Amino acid sequence: MTTTLAPTAGRAGSPAAPGPRRRRPRQTRLLFMLPAAVFLGVLSVYPLVTLVRMAFSKVTAATLNADWAFSGLDNFTAGLESGDTGAAVSRTLVFVVVVTVLGMGLGLGGAIALRTRGWWSGALLALMVFVWALPPVVNGSVWKFLLADTGLLNTVLLGTGLRDTPVPFLYDQHWALASVAFVNAFAVIPFNALVYRAALLTIEPEVFEAAQLDGASKAQQVRHIMVPSVRGTTLVLLILTLVYGFRSFDFIYVMTYGGPGTATNTLPFLGYLQAFVRYDYGLGAATSVIAVAGVLVLAALYARSIRNEEKHG
Amino acid sequence: MDINGNDARPTPRRRTRLALTSLAAASGLLLAACSGGTSAGGDADGSSGGGDTLTVWHYFSDDNQVKLMDDFAAKFEAEHDGATVENVFVPYDQLNSKLVSAAGAQTGPDVVVFNGAEAATLALGGALAPLDDYWADFADAGEVSESVVHTIDGTTYAVQGYVNLLGLWYNADILAEIGVEPPTTMTELEDAMGKAKDAGYAGITLSGLPQSQGEWQAYPWISSEGFTYDDPQADALAAGLGRVRGWVDNGWLSQEAVTWDQTVPFQQFAAGRTAFAANGNWQMGTAASDADFEYGVVPLPLSDTGGVYLGGEGQGIGAFSENPDLAWEYLTATYLDAEGQLLPPEIVGSLPSRADAAADELVTGNVLLEPFAQTITQFGANYPSPAVPAASVADVQLTVGQAWSAAIGGQKSPQQAADDAIAALGPLLD
């Protein structure tokens, strides 16, 4: 992908002036793209093709290493007829909404709070990045302790007299879904804050000075300067956060294993259960394909709405 | 992408392109994640390496169980000059997938120590080597109980060196305080739990996890109400689920049990604030090291229809072992050896599967093992039930485990959980 560059000074037809703005020959640029293309092909495109092929085949532990028999839409209809897929779609949507709203909102809030270049904001950011970089198994296990009946949160709630009984964070069907969604959001906030902060730091300080001279309050500066400035970042982050929400597996695996009962079975976890617990790989692949399709549809809708908004002002 | 560095904010078209590029990359990552991130694990870090080195895959993280693996390795190495045993830990939930994936890549370990109930899954997945020839030539085969020999479609794939099962652990100090004897009937158990709660203690701990561990824990209670896999009836299942859900409603059992595997509830019991624990003989080491109170074990107080699974780990040879003969020598020198079979009861508290080892003073003189031995006689049930087709074992365990968890956790009423489970079990048991 290229963009039109300003014409260089000089006579038409003269050789391009040496310097950083000189175009590389097309073949050279393609050569540089080759490693990434191969990497993406092997690690993304091939698994994707295999996944789709598996979704339309009857694949079990007995046939995984043999030829896969084509089964059409059987896996999809079996999942829908059992009711598992429909219920998991609903839970996944709730999960994604919670993760996206909290992840985006608190990410932007954190970025605005940490917009200064002081040492304390750097230290806080470093701590947030540490939290973000923690393996989900560690992060999830710590949260499981924190949210237990004898964990920190319930101890504080009971100790302060705010509640008589522990909050059933992980063992009531509604609380459990909300809790794992919150922990998922918690884990993505640092990344979103970091990216938002980078975008906010590109705004010229003079813009804020001018706004202050015009009498703009802090809230008005956020609303009229910061939020419009990070729109492009928001688009990318939103898609990444949506994808992250749809990938909701690891925290559920560690914290609830889909329980109580099936209350936290989102699409990715349901796919895991089908493929790696029940050994019906075809059924699990079909569930995963539905999850991916959901991400693509949401992302396409959002990208189109942003385009339309920009077209019509 | 060539973006003018002076412009921090992308134009609309660039923004869309940027978004789509990010989306493509992110979707790729998502799909890679969704396509089941199991690696074969078959290389320097754990597959059969030939020579005199044996790799043994297992899922033990408990100190005593790890010690048993180490002691078996030491025993074999001491008896076989030049042989080296490498015990490789694989998390429980990943072991089967890794074994099947490894088999697809024609690699894998020499020896597999796995949940015996999943022998059919691994055999059908091509991860285990047939043992028929070895077993036919094994002079001591007659000493081993037939119930621990795993034969699928006429072929033997694994044997268990020991048996594990559930019993009712009790805190003798609490029972003395509330003035009750260790229970022998369901009524006595529930009466004792009620008194324990009134005295400020928890009644019982168990695992309500929505997977195979949950099904393993559920089976005694649901079978006690008349549930069987031969003729699965919703009312019997609902009665079993309803009884245990009643314990939650009465405050005798914490609803939090739905998040506990079998290790956590025993740690809760060992902390000394709970009267009973439905847990296994393999917890003896933990009880000895963690419990600073008097404790004992009695058989679970079940009805005549009640059954307690005879579980434990199966031992087999990897389908692509480069040392199958040496692997069999390892098994016959450790898990299937009369002397070797005395290590599990001593270190972990498991019961030997050989008749001669089971008659040893080490076993018969152990007051904690005796109730488990009594349970085998009184309630012992094959694990998995012979009524469950080999290809459906994992499915059935997950279905009943989820019903158990849904009832304990209040996601569904016991009747609803039972009805849903029976509907799902129908095609699986045909």
UniProtKB/TrEMBL annotation, chain A:
Bilayer-crossing regions: 30-49, 92-112, 119-138, 175-195, 225-246, 281-303
Keyword Iron carried by entry: no
Pfam families per UniProt: BPD_transp_1
Domain ABC transmembrane type-1: 89-302
Keyword set includes Transferase: no
Keywords: Cell membrane, Membrane, Transmembrane, Transmembrane helix, Transport
Record family assignment: Belongs to the binding-protein-dependent transport system permease family.
This protein's name: Sugar ABC transporter permease
Originating organism: Cellulomonas wangsupingiae
From TrEMBL, chain B:
UniProtKB keywords: Signal, Transport
SUPFAM superfamilies (UniProt xref): Periplasmic binding protein-like II
Range of residues in the leader sequence: 1-40
InterPro entries referenced in this protein's UniProt entry, alphabetically: SBP (IPR006059)
Family designation: Belongs to the bacterial solute-binding protein 1 family.
Name of the featured protein: Extracellular solute-binding protein
Organism: Cellulomonas wangsupingiae
